[in-house]
Amino acid sequence: MSSQQSNRVATIVINIMVAFVVLILIFLLGDILITGLPHVTLHLLTSPSQSFAAGGGIRDQLFNSFYLLVLTLLISFPLSLGAAIYLAEYAANNWLTSLIRTSIEVLSSLPSVVVGLFGYLLFVIQFKFGFSILSGAIALTFFNLPLLIRSIEGSLHAVPRSQHEAGISLGLSNWKTIKGIILPAALPGILTGIILSAGRVFGEAAALIYTAGESAPIVSYTNWNPLDSNSFLNPMRPAETLAVHIWKLNTEGVTPDAVSISAGASAVLVIVLLIFNLSARAIGNHLYQKGSGHK
C-alpha cells in the first residue's frame, strides 16, 4: 500500500471515529431535549418544588445553582489566577514546580464523591458550616482550581514573549508588565476558561449531596440581607441545586409527576450547559478577532 493510500485510509478511519462521537453526542442531547422540552414551562421555572403533591417546579433549585456557581467562582478565580501567573511567569524549572503541577493533576483526577465526602467531614462537620451553600462552594473549588489554573496558564503562555520583553525594555517591572500587557492580551483565553469551568460547576451533583445538602428551604426573595437566615442570599443555608434535584427525583421522588419534572429539569440543565459552552466559544472568538484588529 502506497503512502497516499495509507493516508487516505487513515483519514477515512479518523473521520468515521469523529462522526461516531458526534452521533453519540447528538443522540444523548436529542433524547434529553426531545423528552424534556415539552415539560419546560413558565410554571416549572417559577414555582417552588413540592415534596409530595404534583405541580412543583425548579425555581429554588435553579437559583441555588447560579448562586453556588457565582460563589465558587469568587473563591476559585483569584486563587487560580495567582497560581497560573506564578507557574507561567515566576516559577523556575525545579522540584517545587514539578510538585505543584503534579498536585494540580492529581486534584483534577479526584472523583467528585471523594471530594464531597472530604468536604462533608471537614467543612460540614469539623468547621461546623453545616449543609450550606458555602460548604458546597468550597468543595467545588477543588474541582474548579485545576481546570482554571491550566486554562489561565495556557492563555498566558499563548501571549508572544516579545510583548513581555517589550514591557521590560520600556523600564516596567515584571509585575507591571504582567498586569498591564500580558493579562489584557490573555483576557480572551481567561474568559473562555472561566465560562467553561462554570459549566463544570453548574452540572456537578455528587459533591454537593454531601456539602450543600438535598433540601431547598423556603426563603424570602425580597430579603436582601445575607446575614438573615430567611434571606435567599444567606450562604449558610442548605441549597439543593438543579443537578441534585434531578438525581433526587429519579432515586427517591414520590410526587406523581416526578418523571415529567425530572425530564424538564434535565432539559433546562442541558440548555444552560450548552449556553455556557457556546458562549465561551463566541466570546473567545470575538475577543481574539477584536484583539487582532479584524472586524
TrEMBL record:
One Pfam family hit: BPD_transp_1
Coiled-coil parts of chain: none
Subcellular locations according to the entry: Cell membrane
One MF term in the entry's GO annotations: phosphate transmembrane transporter activity
Domain ABC transmembrane type-1: 62-280
CC annotations in GO: plasma membrane
Chain segments annotated as transmembrane: 12-34, 66-87, 99-123, 129-149, 181-202, 258-280
Source taxon at top rank: Bacteria
Main localization, broad class: membrane
CDD domains xref list: TM_PBP2
Keywords assigned by UniProt, alphabetized: Cell membrane, Membrane, Transmembrane, Transmembrane helix, Transport
Topology with respect to the bilayer: Multi-pass membrane protein
SUPFAM superfamilies xrefs: MetI-like
GO biological process terms, semicolon-separated: phosphate ion transmembrane transport
PROSITE patterns: ABC_TM1 (PS50928)
Family recorded in the similarity comment: Belongs to the binding-protein-dependent transport system permease family. CysTW subfamily.
Alphabetized PANTHER family for the sequence: ABC TRANSPORTER PERMEASE PROTEIN YQGI-RELATED, PHOSPHATE TRANSPORT SYSTEM PERMEASE PROTEIN PSTA-RELATED
Protein name: Phosphate transport system permease protein PstA
